[in-house]
Specification:
Strand order of the largest sheet: 1-2-3-4-5-7-6
Order of helices and strands: EHHEEEHEHEE
Structural class: alpha+beta
Largest sheet: 7 strands, mixed
CATH architecture: 3-Layer(aba) Sandwich
Bound molecules: coenzyme A
CATH topology: Aminopeptidase
CATH class: Alpha Beta
Length: 158
């Protein structure tokens, strides 16, 4: 069954923040989750899309929120896709692809993102949609946190 993908409502920001805490591997010495306040801000001022569970069933910790993607304009007239994430219980069923399709269909400018080069699931998802690596930036965050900067022309082809 396909999830419903829609713009997040302000009432959903805590569930998205909970998903952000749950989505990342518990690697030592990482600060990946964003704070609740920024998720609330993004509900109003970014493109924040959520995937809602079909059938009204609740997921551990996130309720009906099975996935999310957030994207916002940069000062260079491009878009930054900051995060895409799927609840661990819902992965491998096409939800990440559904979210990416929904985000790119709203992208009227080139889309940039950064990703940990070791995150093979995410890198593969991005390549499936035509993202290419523009640059590898070592120490993008802290000295041990490297990133690929990946780009997409925006929109959906085909
Ligand atoms: C990356 C993520 C969003 C993918 O979500 P998903 O719902 O599992 O993705 P899909 O089922 O649509 O799969 C999309 C593609 O990703 C790749 N993929 C998914 N899981 C994978 C895995 N464990 N290993 C390698 N590739 C994988 C596959 O190429 C897959 O397409 P295919 O099955 O047609 O080959 C999800 O794994 C996630 O939330 N990870 C944690 C958060 C994260 O790392 N986000 C990205 C950085 S912001």
């Amino acid at each position: 069954m396909q999830s419903e993908i829609d713009v997040a409502t302000p009432e959903e920001f805590l569930q998205v923040a909970a998903l952000d805490r749950l989505a990342w591997p518990a690697a030592p010495d990482t600060f990946i989750p964003d704070g609740e306040h920024i998720w609330r801000i993004w509900c109003d001022f970014a493109t924040l899309l959520v995937a809602r569970q079909p059938g009204g069933t609740d997921l551990p910790q996130t309720g009906h929120v099975a996935g999310a993607v957030v994207m916002f304009p940069t000062r260079q007239q491009e878009l930054c896709l900051h995060k895409i994430m799927v609840h661990p219980d819902c992965r491998g069923q096409g939800l990440g692809s559904q979210l990416m399709r929904a985000a790119l269909s709203r992208a009227d400018a080139p889309v940039l993102l950064t990703v940990d080069p070791e995150n093979s699931a995410a890198v593969q998802l991005y390549q499936n949609f035509g993202f290419t690596v523009r640059e590898r930036i070592d120490g993008f965050y802290r000295p041990h946190e490297h990133r690929f900067l990946m780009v997409h022309p925006g929109g959906l082809s085909g």
